[in-house]
Amino acid sequence: MIIFSLYWNKKIFAGLAGIIIISSIILLPRFTFENENLRAVKTRLITWQTTIHQIAEKPFLGYGQETFRESFKKFQPKEIFLYEKFGTELDRAHNEILDTTAEIGLVGLIFYLIFYLNIIKAGFLNKKNILILAASSSLIGLFIANMFGFSTTTHRIFFWLLAGIIIALTQKIKNFKIKIDRTITVILIVILVFFAFKTAINPVIADYYYRQSINSSMEMRDFEAIDYIQKATKTNPYQNEYPIRGAIYSIRSIKDFSPEEINKIFLEKAQWFFTKAKKDLGENFSEIIFIKAMIQKSENKIEEASATFKTLELKFPTTPEYILEEAILLKSFGDQKSAIEKFEKYLSLAPYWQKVETLNNLTSYEYNQLRLFIKHNSKFPSYLKEIAELYKQIGDVEKSNYYSDIAETLEKTF
Q1: Residues whose CB is less than 8 angstroms from the CB of residue 184 and which lie 6 or more positions away in sequence, other chains included
Q2: 33 and 41 in contact (C-beta within 8 Å)?
């Protein structure tokens, strides 16, 4: 609005600038950048700094579109968990420039900026047209907003709509007619309708099945939940999330106390999803390696599973879930010292839990952060008990009592 008024009417610009300055003087003292208000700012600062290191590894061509979450895992610092939910995997840098560079490299960024700036330039060269000026100003506003966020489908629609308005109204276009036989026209329409159905309707149906699977899983109807995920996968085979979630859910459904026949069915389902996901994503994708390790563990291939988990840890050293599962595997294998090492690493990634030692001296913000951490990680005290038991087995009573006491305090308090 400010940019628009600057070019269209300088009196309006002066009025808007005055309103903004006065409002800032009145309202800014009321804003406080601390505690929860500062969380998003700190998360972004950490993410931006880490993304620069991420880009430095593949600066020219990037890692590929929609691969930020996967490529960022390797670099993600544990400090993120101080401000985001424990185990969070960031899928965006919350900065359009960094997101673009990470995915398609400096080469892609240059072409992206040339395209963007040329559209805006074309708009401001025709500033006498109010519609063109409004569209150009809106594009600048969208770009500035995305320096602290990222483009969603809605943003993309507005971008191409605004860009289309500018291009259509600033370019001299000659109209011409194309004559197509009526039969060919009908065939083309049928083909377009078919592909529209396949690409638009199928994902909606698949998403319905996936939501049904979530509802079934919440009611502990495991077979029904897995069947729904399988239907979603078959309906929309291009959505990689379905087979990954299906494989992990199938593995999690395998229980020590369940009949062997039931566990065998769950394992077969997991292998079906795993085969589909691996075909689509390849063997080096983090969750493919994780599922492979979990299947090996379920098949009692302990040494193979341990080797696969080590590969995961080398590639993605700050992903809590991978380290925790490796610790549980080593414990079941009877390797107490190695299991303790992994549990300790898992605990070193987890924020806030040690604050329970000074529970009475915590600020309300710190207490609330600890409460939320335990709420979101309800099994955390049980992991403390597991490491306490491991220390007891190797004869370190002091360490065992330390973790047992913290686990007990957390359970009583929260």
Answers
A1: none
A2: yes
Write down the H helix ranges in 299-396.
302-315, 320-332, 336-349, 364-376, 380-393
CB 347 within 8 A of CB 387: yes
Q: Would you state the pLDDT for residue 85?
A: 86
Residues with Cβ within 8 Å of 117's Cβ and at least 6 positions away in sequence, in order, are none
Backbone phi and psi for residue 222, each to the nearest 5 degrees, phi listed first: -65, -50
Q: Within a 10 A sphere around the Cβ of 100, how many other Cβ atoms?
A: 23
Structure tokens given for 322: 């991978």
> Would you say residue 11 has pLDDT above 80?
no
Give the whole-angstrom CA distance, residue 24 versus residue 18.
10
The pLDDT value recorded for residue 108 is 95
Q: Which range among 81-85, 129-133, 395-399 shows the weakest confidence by mean pLDDT?
A: 129-133
Residue 181 and residue 179: Cα distance in Å, rounded?
A: 7
* Overall average pLDDT of the 275-283 stretch: 93
How many CA atoms lie less than 13 Å away from 269 in the CB half-sphere? 28
121 pLDDT above the threshold of 90: no
Q: What pLDDT score was predicted for residue 358?
A: 85
The Cα 368–Cα 390 span in angstroms is: 30
Cβ count within 10 A of residue 359:
13
Average pLDDT over residues 347-374: 87
Q: Contact, 115 vs 59, CB < 8 A?
A: no
The SS3 of residue 217 is helix
State which H helix or E strand residue 289 sits in: helix 286-298
State how far Cα 89 lies from the chain centre.
5
